[in-house]
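Q: How would the structure tokens look for this protein?
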Amino acid sequence: MSRSYADVAVGEELPELSIPLTRTMIVATAIASRDYQDVHHDPSLAVERGSKDVFMNILTTNGLVDRYVTEWGGPAAVVKAIRIRLGAPNYPGDTMVLTGTVSAKEAGDRVEIKVRGVNAIGPHVTGTVVLQLPVIQKRGSGA
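A: Here is the predicted structure in token form.
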């Protein structure tokens, strides 16, 4: 079911989404997004470069944020902008919990959502997403 612009209120909280961070997911999504940087798939090279293990790439994080808000908005929701900043790495064996709050309604049909993804180390991703939602016109009694 799609949400309409009129259905959304500033301050509304999106339901939490917990995402288990498996090694397979981190490696597969890096490869799927054509990010062949070794720190995303080779544990020994990731450690050699100063990380404790392989870690999720930004393209995967961006995709997960997109999934989170569009699942809430429904199939008619259109992402117009994603502005995110990375923090703590997402390592295998952890869980990232995404949360969001509607922070603004722009004139017409767009809403801004503040998003945050936290793992055991701290905030992995913070930012905002602008979604375009359908505007439902009420039918008049005449004409």
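The mean pLDDT is 94.

Residues 58-73 form the longest helix (16 residues).

Upvote if useful.
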